[in-house]
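User: Hi! Is it possible to get a structure for several chains at once, not just one? Here's what I have:
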Amino acid sequence: MSLRTKLLEVATALLPALRTSSKARVISGSAVVLSLVAFGAAGVAPMVPDAADLPVTMVVEELSVPDLNAQIASLSPAAGQFVAEERIRPGDNLSALLDRLGVNDPQAASFIRSDAAARPLLGLRPGRRVQAIIDGDGRLLSAAALLGDGRDDNHRKLVIRRSGAGFAAEQQPVAFDNRVEMRSGEIRSSLFAATDAAQIPDSVATQLVEIFSSDIDFASDLRKGDRFQVVYETAWQDGEMVRTGRVLAAEFTNAGKTLKAVWFGRNGDEGGYFDLQGKALRKAFLKSPLAFSRVTSGFSMRVHPISGQWKQHKGIDFAAPTGTPIRSTGDGSVEFAGNAGGYGNMVVIRHGNLYSTAYAHMSRVAARRGMRVAQGEIVGYVGSTGWSTGPHLHYEFRVNNVALNPNSIVIPHAQSLAGVELQRFRTIASDMGHRFSLMSGEKLQLAAR
Ligand SMILES: [Zn+2]
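Assistant: Yes, the chains can be modeled jointly so their relative placement is included. Here is the combined structure:
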């Protein structure tokens, strides 16, 4: 049995669990016909003979296919009509676009240039698709494109149709097709290299980091061979992904220890991530005061002599470029903000009676005394003020005003789930657990037997 067949079996097993639409799809000449699953990336050779030989980094993607779509189907080309599709290219203009679409229709071109509803077609950014139906003489019968930048809900579909002796254009609101995608990866050089290889959008990679940031300092804890799996929402329109949504579940194996997270909404959009037992992942304090991002991750995988180490001078020094944002590791209020001699520019935040945190050598302070701050809020930027030999953050975690190594202290968790909520959560968590196990190599072999 080929690998592809095996994967298809798994995918078929997965399908009922996914929210997918079953719209009729018109497949264009060049479109990929494999409409169930596409597999990608992360070092999987498509011709591997036996699933047992596969690396664990297999990626099973859900439904990334429909290339032409319900929309074209609804435009219904008749005999003697042709469907064409093109993407906007950088520096494109209308004549070049119409040429590529095979449209030879000066009347259509001047309508698009002059009609208020049709003109946004000229402003589409590169990569966006334009579909057209033309007759055998290259006359435009209809055209359609999705307007909007993919970042908000303001999406409209532009449809231009031949009407009487001329054309008519209208913009209609669009409905998204929500999907759930699952991907996995293994860290070889950096987190973002791994998420790129698995074709995971940056916004999902960032959520992944945030979800586990109470337990993992992504700037210094990551190891080669760490693995992750992630399930997240996406919104599609006419076969194009227009928005990435929330991570619904994730699993992260760091230095051999696996953490699992499942999103649970408590009141509408309010909610959080919990482990499979319903225990909150969020803790009173983040593990690192530095935000981890594509920009700052450059230094992260390098072993830096002063990165994240507990020092004799009662603090943890984080090496980071000047200007890297510093976050409050917990909710609290600013007790001190200003110059403090050897500490340079410093912010001290009080978290209740017992705890406080201090952030020193800042290039710039972004907090005022007395101000309330939430966990993760930016309070300043990395610098080298005071007694400092180079840009770094000196971080102190204080209990009863005595600096202690936070790695040696058990940090309390946020409130866990109980009662009816816990029951409701268990249903969701077991569904997510099932998906993860289906993605794993062992279950793949079972499915193949
Ligand atoms: Zn220090």
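The chain is about 20% helix and 35% strand. The chain has a mean pLDDT of 77.

User: Great, thank you!
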